[in-house]
Amino acid sequence: MPETSQGPFYTQILADYGAEVLKVENPKGGDDTRLWRTAAEKDIWKPTGKDMSAYFCAINRNKMSITLNLKQDKGREILFRLVKNSDVVVENFVPGKMDKMGIGYEKLREINPLIIHASVSGYGASGPYSHRAGYGAIAAAEAGMLHVTGERDGPPTRPGLGLTDMSTGLYLHGAILAALLARRDTGRGQKIDASLFESQVSLLSNVAMSWLNAGEHSKRWGTEHPSIVPYQAFKTKDGHLVLGATNNRQFQILCHLIKLSGLSTDPRFADNSSSVQNRAELKEILEPILNAKTAEVWLAVLEGCGLPYGPVNTIEEVFSHPQTAARDMVYSLPHKESVSG
Q1: The whole model's pTM is what?
Q2: Record's family (predicted)?
Q3: CB-based contacts of 176: which residues, under 8 Å, 6+ apart?
Q4: In which element (H, E) is residue 319 found?
Q5: Which residues are catalytic?
Q6: Tens digits of residue pLDDT in 234-258
Q7: Could you give the CA distance from residue 146 to residue 156 in angstroms, rounded to a whole number?
């Protein structure tokens, strides 16, 4: 399964499933992400290891790697030999680039009629933006996610993870599996055209539906939920706790636990629709109560209540979490050097 992608989350998933993935890199320095080190990484790599980063390892596990100069005949010949015995080719060139290099889908299909060619780009293979380079943060901006992310009165905020990139990877890996199933039934390969922009537009979901059907402009809500109140992160004495009540019964339970049972009969908060209209007043009531005790105390109070709740954990706390250990979510694997060719 040759790959020429700088954002190979989707092929990482397939490799985790057991697929044999061969990553094809540029002979001049390899994948750019090899050099994307954080400041803390200076102490974890050997002095001779100048072309490796945690970022690269995080999205390329379980893969083999070679370098090919696809601008030369010899490099293309090697690629064609690989394609002849492969199931899927994944790439993220600007649309049309592979055709100009003589390695596009039509050429690959001549070599292997069963090949599945999965292409991911910034904006897709058609339309006025099709030839623009694609980056997750730009797609997140243009396709609306940054507009709805951040504090209510603050500027747009980039999420702490590359959600647009990763979501596109999830979409694309599913599309590849669907194409493999279709090939089993039809005996034909096909080309898959995915893009960061389209993935992000699809993720707008209920925000998009509100605009398309009611003309409702979206807002930034911080950690608050636009249509469920209360449901947000509250400051505790020593951190933050995400807490919510998604229906009247849960709100009554919450009021009982915080010793304000009468609050559930207040006309301003009689049901969720009323609470949404009066979210500021309810927030003013709840914030000082939750801020008076530590997160650990509140977790003990909430244990077994049936409400949605959880602490805002640091990364250290995530990897010491008992559920992380119980589900075997961390494995230590040896690192092997890539093979150049």
Answers
A1: 0.88
A2: Belongs to the CoA-transferase III family.
A3: 10, 14, 88, 90, 116, 118, 192
A4: helix 315-319
A5: 165
A6: 999 999 999 999 999 999 999 999 9
A7: 5
